[in-house]
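Re: [ENG-882] Designed sequences occasionally contain unexpected residues at chain ends

Forwarding the minimal case from QA. C-alpha cells:
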C-alpha cells in the first residue's frame, strides 16, 4: 500500500500536478459559469432564438418541422407554389393553399440547430408554464427567469466550453502549449462569446462546426505533403470537409459559402490529386444539402425558403422587415443591380470600420491582423493563414449582402454575425504574435514575463470582468418581451386560433399559440389574411410598435398604417369600425394593446 510520502511524491513529480491543475481549472470554469449566470444572464432577446426554440419544441412533440411563428411572406410563397401546382386552383378556392389552417411548414430556419434543441428537450425536463414561486425563477413573486430559456442558454454555455477545449488542442497543434493555454483562456474570457452563449442562438454550435472544418483542412494539408499518405485517406478528408461544410450550411445557410475557400484550398494545396479531392468535397457538400433543398422546393418552390431572400431585405425596395411582413410583395421592385450594390457598399463600410477592428470582441483582433504579415516558419501555419483569410473575405461579403433588420435591432449578438465564428483562430494567431513580441522584450527579471501575460489577459478579458461586477443585470428583456403577459393572453385563446402580433416569435415560444407577423397595414394586408386564409382572433402589440418613434415610418398619409390605427384608438378611444377586433382588456393600453373578438378574459374567471 502506497505511503503518504509516495502520494506526495506523485503529486510533486508525477502526473498529480497536471491533474491538480486540470481540476483547479475545471472548478474555476464552474465558478465562472455560476457568477456569469447570476450577474449577467438575460432571457432570450432575439427573434431568431425564440423562433428556433419554438420550432424545436414542435419537433420534440412530434409535430414535424412546422412553426407557430408565421411570416406573411412565407404564406405568400407556400400559397403561390401550391396554387401553381394545382390543376384546378380556381375551382378549389376554399383549399388551404397557404397551409395556415393546419401546421404551417417552417421556411426560415435550417434544421440542424432546432434538431439539436429538440433532442435536448427530449432529455431534459422542460417546464413551459412560468414558475413564480421558486426563488431562482422569480424575484419577490414577480417573473425573473424563464426556465426553458435558461436551460437552452446553459446548454450553449457547455458548447462554449467545448470551443475552449478545441481551441486549446488546435493551437497546440499549430504552435505550442504556451499559445494553446493563452488562446484557450482568452476564448474563455471573451465577453462577446458569453453573450452569444446565453442568447439562445446557434453560434456556439456553428463555431464548433467551423473548428471541425479547420481540423479537416489542417489534416488535408498534412496528408497532401506526405508522399506516403494513402489516396483514400486524403480523399476521405476531402469528403469530411464537404460534409462538415454542409452540416454548417444546414445550421446557418450563409455558412455554406465556405465551400468556396475549401475548394480553393484543395486546388492550391491538395497535392497531385487536387482536382479529384475538390470534386469529392463539393459532391459531399451537395449531397448533404440536397435533401433539404428538395424539401424546401417541394413546399415553396424555393431552395432556401424565406431565408433565401435575405439579400433583398434591407435594400431600398424592401427596407426594414417589409418583405417578411408582406402578404403580396412586389418582388419585381428588387430587380435592379444598383439596389444590391448600395447595400453591399454601405454594409461593407460598416463592417470594415466597426466589426473588423473589433474582431472577436477584443483588441486581440488587431494583433491577428498584424500577425498575418509575419512569415511563419511552419508551412502548415502559413497555409492555414491563407484559409483563414479566404474565410474572412467570404464572411465579409456574405454578411454585407445578407444583413437584414435583425442586425440593426441587435448590432452584435445576432445570427447574421459571421465574423464572430473566426474568434478562436483570431485569438490563436493574435496570441502567437504577442508571444513573439514578448520574447523580444528585454526585461530585468524573467518573472516579469508572467506579469506581462497577466496584464495582457486582464486587458483582453476586461469586458467580461466588468460584466460580472455589481449591479446585477436584470434578466427580464422588457421592453418588448414579457412572458407573463404573453402566457396570459395565450390562455385566453384556443390552441388552433390565430393571433397577429409584432412579436410573433415570442407568442409562439412563450404562449405556444399560432401567431402571424403584423402585416404592413390594417386594411388590405390584414384582410387578405383574415378573410381569405384564416380568421385572426386577436391582435397583440408590444412597445415594439406602441412606443415606436413618431415619424414617416410610423404614420404615412393616405395609408392605413398601424401607426394611424393606434392614433385613432388613442384619440377617439375606439377602434375603427371596419376592424373586426374591438374588445380590449383593462391594464394593457397605452404601453401594450390587446384586441380580440370577444371579452375572453371574463370567461377565464
Amino acid at each position: 500500500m502506497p505511503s503518504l510520502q509516495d502520494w506526495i511524491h506523485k503529486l510533486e513529480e508525477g502526473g498529480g500536478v497536471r491533474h491538480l491543475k486540470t481540476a483547479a481549472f475545471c472548478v474555476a470554469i464552474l465558478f465562472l459559469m455560476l457568477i456569469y449566470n447570476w450577474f449577467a444572464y438575460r432571457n432570450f432577446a432575439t427573434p431568431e432564438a425564440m423562433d428556433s426554440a419554438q420550432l424545436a419544441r414542435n419537433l420534440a412533440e412530434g409535430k414535424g418541422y412546422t412553426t407557430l411563428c408565421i411570416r406573411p411572406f412565407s404564406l405568400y410563397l407556400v400559397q403561390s407554389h401550391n396554387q401553381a401546382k394545382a390543376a384546378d386552383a380556381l375551382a378549389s378556392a376554399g383549399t388551404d393553399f397557404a397551409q395556415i389552417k393546419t401546421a404551417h411548414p417552417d421556411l426560415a430556419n435550417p434544421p440542424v440547430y432546432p434538431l439539436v434543441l429538440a433532442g435536448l428537450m427530449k432529455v431534459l425536463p422542460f417546464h413551459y408554464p412560468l414558475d413564480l414561486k421558486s426563488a431562482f425563477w422569480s424575484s419577490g413573486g414577480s417573473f425573473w427567469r424563464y426556465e426553458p430559456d435558461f436551460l437552452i442558454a446553459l446548454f450553449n454555455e457547455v458548447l462554449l466550453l467545448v470551443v475552449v477545449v478545441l481551441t486549446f488542442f488546435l493551437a497546440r497543434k499549430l504552435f505550442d502549449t504556451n499559445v494553446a493555454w493563452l488562446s484557450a483562456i482568452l476564448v474563455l474570457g471573451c465577453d462577446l462569446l458569453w453573450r452569444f452563449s446565453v442568447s439562445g442562438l446557434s453560434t456556439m454550435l456553428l463555431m464548433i462546426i467551423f473548428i471541425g472544418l479547420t481540423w479537416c483542412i489542417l489534416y488535408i494539408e498534412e496528408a497532401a505533403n506526405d508522399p506516403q499518405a494513402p489516396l483514400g485517406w486524403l480523399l476521405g478528408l476531402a469528403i469530411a470537409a464537404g460534409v462538415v461544410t454542409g452540416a454548417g450550411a444546414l445550421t446557418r445557410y450563409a455558412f455554406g459559402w465556405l465551400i468556396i475557400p475549401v475548394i480553393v484550398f484543395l486546388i492550391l494545396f491538395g497535392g497531385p490529386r487536387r482536382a479529384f479531392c475538390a470534386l469529392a468535397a463539393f459532391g459531399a457538400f451537395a449531397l448533404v444539402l440536397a435533401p433539404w433543398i428538395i424539401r424546401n422546393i417541394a413546399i415553396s418552390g424555393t431552395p432556401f425558403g424565406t431565408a433565401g431572400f435575405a439579400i433583398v431585405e434591407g435594400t431600398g425596395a424592401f427596407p426594414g422587415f417589409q418583405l417578411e411582413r408582406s402578404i403580396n410583395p412586389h418582388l419585381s421592385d428588387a430587380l435592379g443591380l444598383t439596389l444590391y450594390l448600395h447595400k453591399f457598399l454601405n454594409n461593407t463600410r460598416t463592417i470594415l470600420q466597426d466589426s473588423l477592428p473589433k474582431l472577436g470582441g477584443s483588441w486581440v483582433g488587431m494583433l491577428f491582423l498584424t500577425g498575418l504579415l509575419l512569415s511563419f516558419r511552419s508551412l502548415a501555419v502559413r497555409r492555414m493563414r491563407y484559409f483563414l483569410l479566404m474565410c474572412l473575405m467570404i464572411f465579409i461579403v456574405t454578411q454585407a449582402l445578407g444583413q437584414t433588420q435583425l442586425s440593426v435591432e441587435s448590432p452584435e449578438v445576432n445570427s447574421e454575425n459571421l465574423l464572430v465564428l473566426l474568434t478562436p483562430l483570431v485569438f490563436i494567431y493574435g496570441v502567437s504574435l504577442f508571444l513573439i513580441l514578448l520574447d523580444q522584450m528585454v526585461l530585468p527579471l524573467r518573472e516579469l514575463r508572467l506579469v506581462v501575460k497577466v496584464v495582457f489577459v486582464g486587458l483582453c478579458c476586461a469586458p467580461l470582468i466588468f460584466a460580472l461586477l455589481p449591479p446585477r443585470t436584470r434578466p427580464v428583456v422588457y421592453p418588448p418581451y414579457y412572458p407573463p403577459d404573453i402566457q396570459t393572453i395565450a390562455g385566453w385563446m384556443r390552441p388552433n386560433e390565430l393571433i397577429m402580433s409584432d412579436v410573433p416569435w415570442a407568442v409562439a415560444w412563450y404562449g405556444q399559440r399560432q401567431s402571424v407577423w403584423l402585416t404592413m397595414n390594417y386594411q388590405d394586408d390584414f384582410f387578405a389574411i383574415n378573410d381569405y386564409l384564416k380568421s385572426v382572433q386577436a391582435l397583440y402589440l408590444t412597445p415594439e410598435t406602441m412606443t415606436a418613434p413618431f415619424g414617416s415610418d410610423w404614420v404615412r398619409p393616405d395609408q392605413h398604417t398601424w401607426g394611424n390605427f393606434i392614433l385613432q384608438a388613442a384619440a377617439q378611444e375606439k377602434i375603427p369600425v371596419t376592424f373586426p377586433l374591438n374588445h380590449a382588456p383593462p391594464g394593457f393600453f397605452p404601453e401594450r394593446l390587446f384586441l380580440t373578438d370577444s371579452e375572453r378574459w371574463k370567461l377565464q374567471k
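QA comment: On inspection the terminal residues look reasonable. The first helix runs from residue 4 to 13. Proposing we downgrade this to a documentation issue.
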